[in-house]
Amino acid sequence: MNRDRRKLTFNLVGAALLVVWLVMIGMLVKKIHFREQPGTSGSKAVALQPIESAQRDWKEIYLKGKKVGYVINLIKPFDRGYLIQEEIFLRLNLMGMGSGVYVMTQSRVDEQFLLKSFEFGMTSGVVNYRVQGVIDKSGTLVITRGRGKEKRSQRIKLERPPMMGTGMSYYFRNRKLKVGEIFWLPLFDPSTMSQREIAIKVAAREAVTINRISYDAFRLEGEFWGKTMTFWVDQFGNTIKEEGFMGLTAIKSSAARAPRDLETSGDLDFYEMTSVRVTKRLPQAERLRYLKLGVEGIDPGVSYAHNLNSGRQKYQDGILEIRKEKRPFKGPYRIPYADAGGKMKPFLKQEFNIESDSREILDKAREIVGEEKNPVFATLKIMDWVYENIEKKPVVSVPSALEVLRTRVGDCNEHATLLTALLRAAGIPARLNIGLVYTRGKFFYHAWTEAYLGRWVSMDATTNQMPADVTHIKLIEGNLDKQVEIAGLIGQLKLKILDYE
Question: What is the pTM of this model?
Answer without folding.
Answer: 0.81
